[in-house]
Fold each of these.
Amino acid sequence: MKGLLVALAVMGAAPAPAFAHHSFAMYDHTRTVTLKGEVTKFQWTNPHAYLEVDVKQKDGTTKHYSIEMTSINLMTRLGWRSNMIKAGDQVKVTVSPLLNGEAGGLMLDVTLPDGKKLEPGVPAVNTFKRSPEE
Amino acid sequence: MRILASGLLVVGAIAGAVSLGAQQKTAPPPNISGAWERYGAALGQPTGDAQRRDGTAPPRSEQPVVKPAYQKEYQGRLTAVRDANAKGAPLASNYVDCLGDGMPLMMAAMFPIEFLQSPGQVTVIEEAFTQVRRIRLDQPQKKIEDVEPGFYGHSVGHWEGDTLMVDTVGIKESIRYNNVPHSDQMRIKEKIHLAAPNVLWDEITIEDPVVLEKPFTIYYAYRRMTDYTLLEYICEDNREFKDANGVQQIRVGDTGRK
């Protein structure tokens, strides 16, 4: 099974350079993390957009996450606009976490305060294995 | 009367054929101006079904065969890329430095491309990284040694019937198609034509007598985007970087960019 996952991850990573700014192999393709928190910034830039989110921890502290999205050109074609998320919004984000353990990840989808769920169009998104929401 | 009628028909047919021939000679080139998106691989999802149905799928691209002297470098790079991806520590490509594809990979059209036909020139713009190449029409190609090596080289072209024939030289050796090495003797020949009213093919043959055993040909198909204006693309806040080992890394934390 592990071999299959690695194979899928490699397959997913291989075609990505042709359709993305860079390889997404630095993100964990074997699990996802669900982050619920407050947006501090929705950064509408190339080569990637970013969602900056403060996530309250169980011990009461706050941990900041930088969540990478795709290119704003691709997101625009998928219907995204720069004003769709604002600082202060409470969001739920499914991310593929950084393999190096830093507080960052790749956004697979985001649920907005009104319940609307959006995807930023990550290439080969089906090669990311989803974990149950905690 | 019957014979006369037949005779007139024959004369008419000949006159028609002659005028058709004259028309073909003076027919303006087809209109390929406007925005196009890769067809069959939109948004990274290979979907060749529609193309198979309408017969506009181009032939399968050929694999390059490099000479033995370059085999070690080429295979070594491919293996290194594959291993690094499997480890989750991908090697940085030019994209990580926000550098465009150059030729011929620009024509893979990661994002939409635009053709502009103007007197004496066809211009190609790729939305990703705002890449531009200029194809000068009906001019002699320069000698390779007279072209300063660059990302897009020096391109000349001419119309042969409905096909735009393009010749490009002067690509920097660091600008590579899928990691294939090349020398300063590389020459890129393209045949660009409409496979259907709204489907464009670019047949790209890469020659390099120094590195390649024989030329190889790749094919890209594009679909016309009738209501699309290319968007701007500026690498405004590139958080990815290449570390000392050539591995792609990312800075986490708000960079302060608005």
Note: The first helix of chain A runs from residue 2 to 13.
Amino acid sequence: MIRVILPSHLRMHADINGEVTLPVAGVVTQRSLLDALEAQYPVLRGTVRDYATQRRRPFLRFFACQRDLSLEAPDKPLPEAVARGEQPFLIVAAIAGG
Amino acid sequence: MSGVRVLVGTRKGAFVLSADGTRKSWTVEGPHFPGWEIYHVKGSPADPDRIYCSQSSGWFGQQIQCSKDGGKSWAPVGNQFAYDGDAGTHQWYDGTPHPWEFKRVWHLEPSLTDADVVYAGAEDAALFRTADGGQTWTELAGLRGHGSGPRWQPGAGGMCLHTILLDPSDPNRIFIAISAAGAFRTDDGGKTWRAINRGLRSQYIPDPEAEVGHCVHRIAMHPSRPNVLFMQKHWDVMRSDDAGDTWREVSGNLPTDFGFVIDVHAHEPETIYVVPIKSDAEHYPLEGKLRVYRSRSGGEEWEPLTNGLPQANCYVNVLRDAMAVDALDDCGVYFGTTGGQVYVSSDAGDSWSPIVRDLPAVLSVEVQTLS
């Protein structure tokens, strides 16, 4: 199972407590992970990826294994530790303000 | 006993303010959807327990929430707003073509007769409709297909469709307004539209009397006279007696005719309200005095209403969707400010008091009159 940590606004929106665990079939990529997330929680459609373009929303970032994966191609395999469920995939709302 | 429910959208959540018909003691519920921008919350005239809410965020995009129990509980419904076909371009601030991009829903207007039917006014300007309680949304693309769409240009707040008025006497007639394109009307349920801006004069565009390009801030109508429209334009308060075919200025003796809100008394179709704002460069009241102005003659002659409103050091704004009236015998008038106050007058504007003082900046105020 893949582990995903969502920002608090999205956890509240989808009525999620804590971490999400997801079954992801095949190669674990950003796209397959987000497809599985949206299948399990349809109310998250359009919140992480833009509906029209399916691209990551600009103020969100993807972190895992202490790396920023935000700019990786959506079909590039995620780190093995994420695919094995040892490390979570973090969807992070960028800090704004000052 | 009768009562009222005030639906308040703010920069950081939605609030529901409730009172009995005396409107003296208030219950405040919220924030709902804390931390999210709530552009508009509005109840269905067909079923007062059905309330729709536009929830948006620069991080997470657009959500639509629906309550079926008068705002006690909510559930997200459909949030996919796709332009019909090739969206094309409109003018950007610098005059260059810019692709149409959905950003948010500014205004939700539930049908007068069917709780499942709602119209949504979007930025970039377009009109959407749901017939299944918000699960799916379809663009009424005839509006952007009017032909002038490529010439529309955003105002400072974005290119938003912010006003939707449904004609109670004709289900096929809808009025809408866009900043900064102007006002439009359909007489066939949204298939075709015509610009209704004749008589508007805007010095800030190359042709002050152009067919489109006017920064209309808000339009109001009394349901008993749907051919009479009142408009707060960027500058100028305007009136139409022929369903928008022609407009004339009725700013009269207002101290400034810039502003955002305009509304009509529930029982007196010639009594209207505005909140004059100093200028487009200084979005706060003149002289630091928060004054509602009332005309009992449909414009031209205005009186300041100050009793209970701050008359010194007040520098808030009152945004375009932040005024409403209830339908109790003594008409109640409500407005919210960017300073987080929501004021009520239970005597048609003669006196005012704050319901709440310290909410986040208020984006919208709507009122439901409950029996």
Note: The interface with chain B takes residues 7, 9-10, 12-13, 43, 45-48, 50-52, 57, 59-60, 93-94, 96 of chain A (CB under 8 Å).
